[in-house]
Amino acid sequence: MDGQWLVESKIELDSPWFFESIAADGSHVTYNITHLPFRVGRDKSNDLTVASSDLSRHHAVLTADISGRIRLTDLNSTNGSSVNRERVEGSCLLNENDIVHFGPVEFRVGIRRVELARVDEARTMLAPQGLALSELFVPNESQFYELLAGQGMSGAAQPIVEAAGGRIVAYELLGRASHPGLPGSPARLFQMARALGREEELSEAFRNFSIDALAPRLEGFTLFANTHPNETFSEAFLASLADLRRRMPGLDLVIEIHETAVTESRRLVEFAARLRDIGVRFAYDDFGAGQARLSELGEAPAHFVKFDMGLVHDLHLASERKRHVVRDLVKLVLELGSVPLAEGIEKEAEAQICREMGFQLIQGFLTGKPLPLDQLPA
């Protein structure tokens, strides 16, 4: 059932807020919120009319709050209103960059930073049918860009040990986030980055922070740093490594290349030569997660080959056929002059069979969990 209209005089806004939507052709359309109350619904009497049967005639209203912000009140609509994909029960305050759904119809909240001509007449929007909440905008987008600029950036380091003896010889640098408005999980952050087309920038930001903040605490150890497949062969990436070598000439750095980035031998051979000129070693990461890339491994042997966790997890319980395959791969890596490293080792039985197969390095919770920045020696 439609809610009742809220009765109050109109308040003109000095700094106009607006709703932003994305049209079917991908263009962005804005709807000025130049006064309050501002009503949204299917009926033409609303300030913003959304031509969709999924909205109630009088669906929601925006009003001024004593805090100076805008309050959204759902008018007991049939399909509800949501803010950042959380159903609004009654009302809630809005912030810039919030993602608002009226029924299934999606908007982002914004504040204009430049003076524009005011538009006070009612606006009409055509909306697709269907009750599923769309995901055209990325929640917490502004906080994500703050992270790229360094705010809330953090890191951790996981030890890499000799398979025989357990001596720590290296650390893998891992990007983390402590921004209060963002998830801490790197996987979740890369999902946001993918939606915003910023995966390479997030990878670079994590890597630069980790090296600058953690490397001084880990002098004397080899440091492994991750890359994103999209940035691996770019000139900008290589230039950043060259600049890093100039800034930190004593750094013993190994760049990890994801298995999915290895697509053709020629480019890989050229890339390996460029890294050699810069003075940086490299490792194949997640080896065996997809194709083993044996051809590329032979054409451009890496200094290290990190076997994917899927190959070594519960290897002591695997079939003889699988163990034979892994054993042969380790042998091939050694014959090419590379160092085989087993990732994701959590049990001593896994570690033992890896030693027997010829793995020289081990990494995983068994030998050391990632240590956050504040737990590393000053």
Can you give me a brief rundown of this structure?
This protein has 378 residues and is an alpha/beta fold. It is 26% helix and 30% strand.
Number of helices: 9
Q: Report Rg.
A: 27 Å
**Low-pLDDT segments:** 1-9, 114-122
> What is the overall shape?
elongated
* Nearest-integer average pLDDT: 85
Span from first to last CA? 62 Å
The overall strand count is 21
Keywords:
378 residues; alpha/beta; 8-stranded mixed barrel; 6-stranded antiparallel sheet; 9 helices; elongated
Question: What can you see in these coordinates?
Answer:
The chain is built from 9 helices and 21 strands. The chain is of the alpha/beta class. The strands form 3 sheets. It has an 8-stranded mixed beta barrel with strand order 13-14-15-16-17-18-19-20. α6 links the parallel β17 and β18. α2 crosses α3. The longest helix is centred in the middle third of the chain and has 16 residues, at 199-214. The radius of gyration is 27 Å and the shape is elongated.
How are the SSEs ordered, and which strands pair?
Elements: E1 11-22, E2 28-36, E3 38-41, E4 48-51, E5 60-64, E6 70-74, E7 81-83, E8 86-87, E9 91-94, E10 99-102, E11 105-111, E12 123-126, H1 141-148, E13 153-162, E14 168-177, H2 186-196, H3 199-214, E15 222-226, H4 235-247, E16 253-258, H5 265-278, E17 281-287, H6 294-299, E18 304-307, H7 309-312, H8 320-335, E19 339-342, H9 348-357, E20 361-362, E21 371-372
Parallel strand pairs: 3-4, 4-12, 14-15, 15-16, 16-17, 17-18, 18-19, 19-20
Antiparallel strand pairs: 1-2, 1-11, 3-5, 5-6, 6-9, 7-8, 7-10, 10-11, 13-14, 13-20, 13-21
Helix pairs in contact: 2-3
